[in-house]
Write a structure and sequence with these properties.
Number of strands of chain A: 12
Number of helices of chain B: 10
CATH architecture of one domain in chain B: 3-Layer(aba) Sandwich
CATH topology of one domain in chain B: Rossmann fold
Number of helices of chain A: 9
Strand order of the largest sheet of chain B: 6-7-8-3-9-10
Helix content of chain B: 25-40%
Structural class of chain A: alpha/beta
Distance between the termini of chain A: 50 Å
Number of strands of chain B: 10
Order of helices and strands of chain B: EEEHEEHEHHHHEHEHEEHH
Shape of chain B: globular
Shape of chain A: globular
Oligomer: heterodimer
Largest sheet of chain B: 6 strands, mixed
Strand content of chain A: 15-25%
CATH superfamily of one domain in chain B: P-loop containing nucleotide triphosphate hydrolases
Helix content of chain A: 25-40%
Radius of gyration of chain A: 21 Å
Radius of gyration of chain B: 18 Å
Strand order of the largest sheet of chain A: 1-9-8-5-4-2-3
Strand content of chain B: 25-35%
Structural class of chain B: alpha/beta
Largest sheet of chain A: 7 strands, mixed
Chain lengths: ~300, ~270
């Protein structure tokens, strides 16, 4: 008589977390958006994955996702790595959302290491999985002290790591998690994204949310916010560049991963953003190692 | 209690005090670590605080350097931004700024005063970074300059402090606390834990640097030799109280209080 009664009860609430938890996280997110770069404490929950696998990002996504969203998840820039696939499947299952690999189609993009190559647009939300939200932690282990430093805007200490880097390598070497000043006020760790992606945060069209599950902190960069990477007057900030183009799509401007091909020193460089690389190849771009054009029709003909 | 009023050589010191401590008390529950301590410190003057362990020397130093608020009393400091003001009446932010811009603090154990995870050179320039210097080349030159001033090998500038000997670490700490040209430096047993020959060289170095830069210093020590060599004036503490203060030579050559007499007579004569 009543169809509801016969249906198997749902094991989990929509988007895994219960409604009160999602409300609590949304409150933290609102505060984070209101104070760009400020680390807002929140009651991080146990998640069905271990700390370090993206529990902060998953909780932020769970709090903001709705059935109309289109979800993309990347790990090291790629959509097809184990962690990205698992988390994407998780939300497809518990939040009943459409998933995509195309950056342009996604409304929520969860990431650990990269900001996609395709420019982000208004209405998109980037969710970062943050291992260590405190950029000063390496130099100052006391939480009481780092909080005072943030409160009083005493950020001289962060430059010590840059100084150390120039002393050791002759340039500001740090490749990922390069510290930034948000809205000329709060010092922020942009999670372990490469410094190549730091300029994409500056005056971005999209909303950037950072969740650290183990450290229980949420922070944000709202759209159209100034984000400045720290540097010295005589050693200005610069991003990585590569002499090689992408071996598959021939792109010269993207962020590259180095792939070792054999034990004789041969290597190739390939776009770390797999969706971007795939789109370029589909559009007819080919790099030096792209090989012959992939064609699926002959294979089907050989089937018995 | 004050047997001899402090006498200052005319002309060499400015009359206005750099720091004034008024009736400072600090209690930890029933323990009264400092009782009604009062003294003045003038610019360029070196004040020694001597006394046995547990007499409240370090507590006093922590109070007057802004690290621990006193239970009662005032600590006035003549800062560039605020003039002569009670540092505990200022906001924590202002107090930290004074400590950053105008003070240095040399710890007894160099590991407490150094950042062990970054190189010696970076340790030395940290106060400059804290005071908004953002030019690498200039800071690098200054760090090498200070390495030379404290007689450290410039080739070791990129070495981690753990690769330095105890005496070298202490010299590194001294360079780090003088590079931003402070007007007052606090030292808590700066030669503790060093062997005698290293102590002597370090004391000599400190005396030269402090005199050259004309800065004021407050040195806590239980070593009468250190006090005699460095300090212009002495404060003798016992059980949280200042039992005697006056010019160093006066106090040590003609001690009035029974405890000071005991302290002076217990120094080993070789």
């Amino acid at each position: 008589m009543n169809a509801q009664q016969n249906r198997k009860p749902e094991a989990y609430n929509y988007a895994y977390l219960d409604e009160q938890t999602k409300r609590m996280i949304r409150r933290a997110i609102l505060k984070a958006v209101a104070i760009p770069g400020y680390q807002v404490p929140f009651g991080s929950r146990e998640m069905p994955v271990p700390y370090g696998w993206g529990t902060g990002g998953i909780q932020v996504t769970a709090a903001i996702i709705g059935p109309d969203d289109v979800y993309k998840c990347i790990d090291q820039g790629a959509d097809d790595t184990t962690n990205a696939v698992s988390i994407r499947r998780f939300f497809a299952r518990v939040a009943d959302v459409a998933t995509t690999e195309r950056t342009q189609d996604a409304t929520i993009i969860q990431t650990r290491h990269r900001i996609p190559e395709a420019p982000l647009t208004q209405g998109q939300i980037m969710v970062y999985q943050v291992p260590q939200p405190e950029p000063l932690r390496f130099l100052e282990p006391r939480e009481t002290e780092t909080r005072a430093m943030h409160a009083y805007e005493e950020y001289g200490l962060q430059y010590l790591s840059l100084y150390e880097s120039v002393s050791a390598f002759g340039r500001i070497a740090g490749g990922a998690g390069y510290p930034v000043l948000v809205d000329e006020r709060y010092l922020m760790s942009p999670s372990p994204i490469p410094k190549f992606d730091n300029p994409k945060l500056h005056q971005s069209e999209a909303l950037h949310l950072f969740g650290a599950g183990r450290e229980k902190r949420i922070y944000a960069v709202p759209p159209h916010t100034d984000v400045r990477s720290l540097d010295f007057e005589d050693y200005p900030f610069e991003v990585q560049s590569w002499d090689e183009v992408c071996g598959l799509c021939g792109c010269g401007t993207s962020y590259k991963d180095e792939v070792i091909l054999d034990d004789e020193g041969n290597r190739m460089f390939v776009c770390s953003d797999s969706a971007y690389c795939g789109e370029r190849r589909a559009a007819g771009h080919a790099g030096p190692l792209a090989g012959h054009a992939l064609d699926s029709t002959p294979q089907e003909e050989t089937l018995p | 209690m004050n047997m001899v009023a402090p006498i200052t050589p005319a002309g060499t010191l400015k009359p206005a005090p750099l720091m004034q401590v008024r009736d400072l008390n600090k209690s930890f529950g029933p323990v009264r670590a400092c009782r009604d301590v009062s003294f003045d410190l003038r610019r360029g003057e070196i004040l020694g605080i001597v006394g046995e362990s547990g007499s409240g020397k370090t507590t006093l130093l922590r109070c007057i350097s802004g690290q621990t608020p006193p239970s009662s009393g005032e600590v006035l400091f003549d800062s560039q931004r605020h003039g002569l003001r009670d540092i505990f009446a200022l906001s924590e932010q202002e107090r930290r700024r004074i400590a950053r811009e105008e003070w240095g603090y040399v710890h007894q154990n160099p590991r407490d005063g150094l950042r062990m995870r970054v190189s010696g050179g970076a340790n030395v320039v940290e106060p400059l970074l804290m005071n908004n210097v953002r030019h690498y080349g200039r800071m690098r030159a200054q760090s090498l300059d200070w390495f030379a001033k404290v007689e450290l090998d410039g080739a070791r500038v990129d070495g981690k402090p753990r690769t330095f000997s105890g005496g070298m670490q202490q010299r590194l700490q001294i360079a780090r606390n003088l590079i931003h040209n402070p007007s007052l430096i606090f030292m808590d047993e700066p030669t503790g834990g060093l062997d005698v020959s290293v102590q002597a060289r370090l004391l000599d170095l400190m005396r030269v640097l402090v005199r050259e830069m004309g800065l004021a210093a407050i040195i806590v020590t239980h070593d009468i030799g250190v006090a005699r060599l460095l300090a212009d004036r002495l404060l003798v503490m016992k059980a949280g109280e200042v039992v005697e203060q006056g010019l160093t030579d006066q106090v040590l050559d003609d001690p009035q209080h029974g405890y000071t007499q005991l302290l002076v007579s217990s120094v080993l004569q070789i």
